[in-house]
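A common beginner's mistake is to predict each chain separately and then try to dock the pieces by hand. The better habit, illustrated here, is to supply every component at once so that their relative placement is modeled jointly.
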Amino acid sequence: MTQYIIKRLLLLPLLLFIFSIFAFFVIQAPPGDFVTSYIAELAASGSSMDQAQIDALRAMYGLDRPMYIQYLKWVGRIIRGDLGVSLDWQRPNLELISERLMLTVALGLLTFCFTWAVAIPIGIYSATHQYSFFDYFFTVFNYFGVATPTFMTALVLMWLAFQYFGVSVTGLFSPQYVDAPWTWGRVVDLLRHLWLPAVILGLDGTARLARIMRANLLDELNKPYVEMARAKGMSEWKLVLKYPVRLAINPLISTIGWYLPLIFSGSVIVATVLNLPTIGPMLLRALTNQDMFLAGAIVLIYCGLAVIGTLISDILLAWLDPRIRMEES
Amino acid sequence: MSSEQRPILSVRDLKTYFFLDEGTVKAVDGVSFDVYPGQVVGIVGESGCGKSVTVRSVLRIVEKPGRIVAGEIFFRPRKGNGRLLEGSQDGYVDLARLDAQGREMRAIRGAEIALIPQEPMAAFSPVHTIGDQIMETILLHQAVNEEEARRLGIERLREVGIPNPEQRMEAYSWELSGGLRQRAMIAMALSCHPTLLIADEPTTAIDVTTQAQVLNLLRSLQQQHNMSIIFITHDLGVIAQIAEYVLVMYLGRLMETGPVVDIFHHPLHPYTRALLKSIPSVYTRSRTFLPTIEGSIPHPFNRPPGCPFHPRCSQFTAGICDQKTPLLQPVNEQQSVSCFLYHRRAEED
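With all components supplied together, the output reads:
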């Protein structure tokens, strides 16, 4: 077990190195750079810059150097823990990201809990009551859940809430709390706003997870070990929870890792639609403004979280499934 | 009559049907037999003849969409299981009347009637230890604590001849060899000292040498504990080794029943004769074809009218066998046969 974890830990730096190259070239891929979009913005507001100023600006940000030098300088700074300064906001990236981090993580965790708490019981019910009324009901519901884009759900719910309850559901705080310091009232206000985005973000994942859980469990329910448990005289729900559910959940454990980057990003589009102060919309803005160091930092953090998430999944799986544990040692 | 002469299990005209969209499959269609204390009853028949469904009906673990539509399954529980016997005059409970998932039936399953399945590999959960699964059975049916259950589990494993039972308790089923795995399965089935053991082709998935060991083990355990066993197999050689009484099944019905000696030495039903002829023997000349039964088992939706075996029968009488279904009738001191060659009693319908 320890060996298994160490082996995976040793792979981490290599993966992160590959991802850093990937992240850097992805953000470099669109034509032009921050200065180009800055000039365009200036032009749109009626002012302009001469070539000398432009060149000075490029030199100041190091944008005139060859790409590999830019990459090396960027990576060098990151290794020292410096994520650079946002060209757009003119503030340290670390500060910008950490400001939104707490709300992002809170929303992500809530979404994750909602998804699992709702999807797993639905999946178990549907599988154990196959072809019953509620099984069909959940199946139809799940089709809608998977097929409807989340931003669509967000828009519809926003409209419903506004139309019938006169509530504005955008943002995570009521107007009086937006810039208020942290008080008990602000926390309560946050929780009152947080559940709806969590439900909207979780709906799609819930539907997917419930469908997979149902299919996995249906496969397991016909296995001889279930019949054996029945022949031992166990009560039906007890044996279902102990044996087939345990085996049906195992493959899902490996997907937990994927949630980690999702927790961080939320859904970019939904967060933008709902005007949530999370990291997602910040990434979108950084990308459209070609704020390369901020975008690069966020993309790199996503990649790092994906790697760590996979590691967590691997460890969880080895811990839960003795077959995997043995294979490794 | 002393209780030893009374059957522990008495199945009467059992019918278990599967209701599918395509039609009804009469998997078990009017089966009656008795099992006496300490007796080993063998059920033989080709795949799909309803052997497994018969014993699953007794255990009340028939999978949907199957269900018992008629008949009685009288079982005589131990004296200690008093609550079960409320309202019963003769000490029998009709299992067919109990709720399959109810408390009464669950108190019998695993404790008084235990199952040894065909595939020990698949019948153990791969993510729970053997010890966990054996202790679970003990904890379900006996008023003992976990420590005591572990001790009993180790004792059972030792009893079935598993070396280092203490360590095997922590092992997973896939870490054991096929023979050991089946022994562990037997240990689990016997963990609560059942009075009736149902062995559903327990030796099919293991090699011949191990097969012999497992059969010997089962026989010695049966004698030690004075258990009754219902032994299902399609292998007549295995039946000859272990069973005292034989039921020959075909398409959900009993064709012939009798003591093992009579069945093997003077089989009466044409189906039993055909089955016995198709066993390879050391006395036959080499390089001759092994006789097989003509034709194949009819499709379950397409059962022939009259005697189910008549399309493949060499002694088929037109106008009788394809019109009426023969009943199982005693034809001498020992054997009962359902065939018009021996009697005229047919099902009235």
